[in-house]
Amino acid sequence: MYSRLQYISTGNTVNEQLNNIRKVLENKGDWIQLRWKNAPKTALIDLAFQVGELKEKFDFTYIINDHVSVAYKVNSDGVHLGLTDLSIQQARNFLGAGKIIGGTANTVEHVRQRIAENCDYIGLGPLRFTSSKQNLSPVLGYEGYQNIIQEIQKEDQHHPPIYAIGGVKQEDILQLQHIGIYGVAVSSLLTQSVSTQSIIQHINHEFYG
Fold first, then answer.
1. Which of 18, 50, 81, 87 is least surrounded by Cβ atoms within 10 Å, i.e. has the fewest?
2. What is the dotted CATH code of the domain comprising 3-206?
3. Contact 182, 148 (CB under 8 A)
4. pLDDT per residue over 73-108, tens digit each?
C-alpha cells in the first residue's frame, strides 16, 4: 500500500526544488509529489526529468501535481489532480493502467465524487491555514475531518486512502490517525525543518507503530 507520508515539493527555482526534494529523500522520505505552480513549462519538464533521475539512487514513489502531460513525458508513477484539473478518468486514459492518480477534496461531497471517480487516494484539506498554497479552500480543522471520515465510513468501508493536507504539523499526527486519516501530505513541515529525519521517523512511527 502507499506510504503514509507524502512530501509536496516547494521552491522557486529548479535548484531550490531539487535541493528540497533531495533533502527529504536523504532522510528516508519515500513519496514525492512534484509541485511547482506557475513555473515555465520548459523549466518544469527539466526539473521533472531530474527528479526522475534520482530514482537511480533512491527508492521512492514519484507523482506530479496537475500536469498530466508532464507526468506522461517523464514516465512518473502518477499524478495528483485538483478539483478543476483534468478528470480522473481522462488522466487514467492518458497515462495508462498502473499509474497512481490522486485527487483533491475539501468537502464530503468532493470525497464522494473522488470515490465515484475511482481515484487511488484522496488529499483532503486543508487542516488549517497554510501560506504554501494560494486560493485556499475552507479550513476543516479536526472536527471537519472527523465529520467527513465518519460520514464516508458509514457509506463505504472500502474507500481510497485519505490523506490530510494543508498546514499539518508534527503534533497533529496522532489526532489525525485517531480520526481515521490514512496519512499526511506535507510541504513546509519538512522543507523548513532542521531535523527532517526525526520528523519523518516520528510520522512513520505514529502511523505504522
1. 87
2. 3.20.20.70
3. no
4. 999 999 999 999 999 999 999 999 999 999 999 999
